[in-house]
Automatic annotation (TrEMBL):
Coiled-coil blocks: none
TM segment ranges: 235-268, 314-333, 395-417, 437-461, 482-504, 606-632, 735-754
MF GO annotations: chloride channel activity; protein dimerization activity
Ranges for domain Anoctamin dimerisation: 2-224
Topology within the bilayer: Multi-pass membrane protein
Name under which the protein is recorded: Anoctamin
Family listed: Belongs to the anoctamin family.
Gene Ontology CC annotation, any one: plasma membrane
Name of the encoding gene: ANO7
Length: 757
């Protein structure tokens, strides 16, 4: 049995469909269904029909099997690589080899039974059948995954209506609800019925569950060859990348934790921190807002010390380390990817081998007859002189810009929210609340920002689907790459606009006492005397950790509750009435439909990888949080593929696709970001400058970093105050400011040259 088609309907629909004046849509679906099955039989597919009825509902299981001659014909047409000669499996892990040489026991290694062999392969030719390994046994010559791949290709090519209207393939039939589902079967149950069964007698699914998907195997090597044998190269490469990435997070998490611990030591012994905490009323600071009072700098003693956990010399070293880590990680992943692709015979896999999308011809026909010329004229005011696809690209541009503006509008709204809420709490709150008014406003603003980000995230994914369909991509790979690129642009702006604002823009356009800049009549936000880096760390933790908690909660609870509810409700109705000779078809029908790897790749590569590289200088613990998340993510994904989803059809792939290019873009952006973060946001360079020009122990640094309010402000308010800036008494930039600017720009040049060259 190679494939299963499922058709579910109410029995009263059946009565309407056979009535003289029956439902036209049901009749059309019935004609499509019957024609599709006749075409399959004509193509040589063996079909078994089984009907199950209960409580006015009917399920029809169409069991499909491809005979030997059909398998050979399509294997040659698809160019499937088949074995010529078996060789010992050459898979190895560098850490295992290293520990062997050092004679250290390796707790990560486990002997997984039935290790798949490696082969010399060649594209299948019927005329050369006798040269292929195992040609004497037709039942085992093609593996289960190869049979599934061939059946899936036949189902995707079979016409059920008019080809000009793109009435082709099983995907559209499932979309039109002609069939409820189409899927290959799992290899029996995933649980081992009896622990006394020898490991070599277990099915591949049971081996994967016992030696890979269980929570107790979180520290073991992944059996990648077994995963590839069961799920195919595309899914296996995803798990290979996730395991490789998680392994590389170990040194990053260790160094980050050490840097954070050093920050605790520096916080306790920091001279400027002691000066602030012991200053009393020595430094009276200018009001934070138009209705705020003067305040002593000693009030931020705790906040300033907390900021030292994220803004010290160790974090500068760590940002340099993580920039090198990211570049090296990608280089070594390219090497690992090439090794796996070569070993799995997909290194020379080309897109020409991939068929056109099922909806391509339908979309093309609709495009020809659409009024897109009128739409372009409406936008530009001129008759179009572009090709049809060029006009689609023009409309795409008109859609991208407003979407980005929406994110910026929300960002401005969050800024105004923090300012207004801070004013309100300061005005009506108790003395304790007044002291923490702007901190509370900042925290609640970050939470509100996360909620808006999650809402926009879903909307942008839907918008990206619509825009990508407009572009008329022929193959699924082209479609996926275009879709992922748009999602990356949207989500990069969506998720990173707020941290980028805090890191590089907040507090830059404040002005000075008596000459403050405003936004919509409200004084611009300032970072405060504690600096922006601690606020950036807060923003990162809320967005990154909050998103990870929500994702893991969804994967732990939704795949637990939704499938359990679905399976329970279906079992309650259909228990005991599935086809008795093949109950697996009914059991697999209860599972959730496998979609794709998009959401997992996106959350790990775009969101997580970006936060641990672009803004790592603000939060050394980010790699540790990422590591803990990935340990959970890997086991969750393994269990979902084995125990929750229907079996996925094998897809060949050379690597992780466009996700690697996205990781590369993020890495390059991270190198630039970290340089500017250290130079302009961190207090590291001003401290270094003060050490070499004034005092090695930083005595007097606080007074050095504070400016005096200008005379016109003192004359108006009858009070002198201090504010954090490098300005003269008249408000103009001091010589120290320009010297520091030269130091900062020099640091950026040295940092970038050192990283890129």
């Amino acid at each position: 049995l190679d494939f299963v088609l499922v058709w579910e309907r109410n029995l009263n629909e059946k009565e309407r469909s056979v009535a003289p004046a029956g439902n036209e849509n049901l009749n059309l679906h019935e004609r499509w269904r019957q024609k599709f099955l006749r075409k399959l039989e004509k193509a040589g597919i063996q079909i078994e029909r089984h009907i199950t009825e209960k409580d006015k509902k009917e399920i029809r299981f169409i069991l499909l099997n491809a005979p030997w001659n059909v398998l050979c014909y399509y294997a040659e047409e698809l160019g499937l690589p088949l074995p010529l000669l078996a060789i010992p499996n050459q898979s190895q892990n560098w850490s295992n080899e290293l520990l062997k040489k050092l004679r250290i026991p390796n707790i990560m290694y486990e002997n997984v039974p039935n290790q798949p062999l490696d082969y010399y392969t060649c594209q299948f030719k019927v005329t050369k059948l006798e040269r292929f390994l195992g040609n004497d046994d037709q039942s085992t010559f093609f593996t289960n995954t190869q049979r599934h791949q061939i059946l899936r290709e036949i189902l995707a090519r079979t016409v059920y209506g008019r080809r000009k209207k793109a009435e082709v393939g099983i995907d559209r039939l499932v979309t039109e609800n002609v069939f409820t589902a189409a899927f290959p079967l799992h290899d029996g149950p995933f649980t081992v019925p009896n622990e006394d069964i020898p490991p070599e007698n277990l099915s591949l699914r049971q081996i994967l569950y016992k030696y890979w998907a269980r929570w107790g195997k979180w520290y073991k090597y992944q059996p990648l060859d077994h995963i590839r044998a069961y799920f195919g190269e595309k899914i296996a490469l995803y798990f290979a990348w996730l395991g490789f990435y998680t392994g590389w997070l170990l040194p990053a998490a260790f160094v980050g934790t050490m840097v954070f611990a050093i920050g605790i030591y520096l916080m306790i012994n920091d001279v400027p921190a002691k000066e602030i905490c012991e200053s009393g009323t020595k430094y009276m600071m200018c009001p934070k807002c138009s209705i705020c009072d003067y305040w002593p700098l000693s009030h931020i003693c705790t906040t300033f010390k907390a900021g030292l956990l994220f803004d010290n010399g160790g974090t500068v070293f760590f940002s340099i380390f993580m920039s090198l880590w990211a570049v090296t990680f990608l280089e070594y992943w390219k090497r690992t990817n090439a090794i796996l692709a070569h070993r799995w015979d997909c290194f020379e896999f080309e897109e020409i081998e991939v068929r056109s999308r099922d909806h391509f011809y339908k979309e093309f026909e609709r495009l020809i007859s659409s009024k897109i010329n009128g739409l372009v004229k409406c936008f530009t005011g001129k008759p179009p002189h572009l090709s049809l696809f060029g006009k689609r690209g023009l409309l795409l541009g008109y859609s991208l810009l407003p979407s980005i503006f929406v994110v910026l509008i929300f960002l401005v709204s969050i800024i105004l929210y923090r300012i207004v809420i801070g004013f309100f709490m300061f005005k009506v709150g108790s003395p304790l609340i007044k002291e923490s008014a702007f901190l509370i406003a900042s925290l609640t603003g970050s939470v509100v920002n996360l909620i808006l980000i999650l809402i926009l995230s879903r909307l942008y994914i839907m918008l990206a689907h619509v825009l990508t369909r407009w572009e008329m991509h022929r193959t699924q790979t082209m479609y996926d790459n275009a879709f992922i690129s748009k999602v990356f642009i949207f989500q990069f702006v969506n998720f990173y606009s707020s941290p980028i604002y805090v890191a590089f823009f907040k507090g830059r356009f404040v002005g000075y006492p008596g000459h403050y800049y405003t936004l919509l009549g409200v004084r611009n936000e300032d970072c405060g005397a504690g600096g922006c880096l601690i606020q950036l760390a807060q923003e990162m933790l809320v967005i990154m950790v909050g998103k990870q908690i929500i994702n893991n909660a969804q994967e732990l609870l939704v795949p637990k509750t939704k499938p359990v509810y679905t399976i329970y409700s279906r079992k309650k109705t259909w228990c005991g009435v599935f086809p008795s000779h093949n109950p697996t078809s009914g059991q697999d029908w209860l599972f959730l439909m496998y979609c794709n790897l998009f959401s997992t790749y996106w959350s790990l590569s775009v969101l997580q990888f970006g936060f641990i590289t672009i803004f790592v200088a603000a939060c050394p613990l980010a790699p540790l949080f990422a590591l803990l998340n990935n340990w959970i993510e890997l086991r969750l994904d393994a269990r979902k593929f084995l125990c929750v989803y229907r079996r996925a059809v094998v897809e060949r792939a050379q690597g992780i696709g466009i996700w690697f290019e996205i990781l590369d873009v993020i890495t390059k952006f991270a190198v630039i970001s970290n340089a500017f973060l250290i130079a302009f946001t961190s207090d590291f360079l001003p401290r270094v400058y003060y050490r070499y020009t004034h005092h090695k122990e930083l005595h007097g640094y606080i007074n050095f970093s504070l400016a005096y309010s200008p005379p016109d402000f003192i004359a108006q308010n009858h009070t002198m105050c201090r504010y954090k800036a490098y300005r003269d008494n008249d408000g103009s930039y001091s010589l120290t400011y320009w010297n520091l600017l030269a130091v900062r720009l020099s640091f950026i040049v040295v940092f970038e040259v050192g990283q890129f060259y």
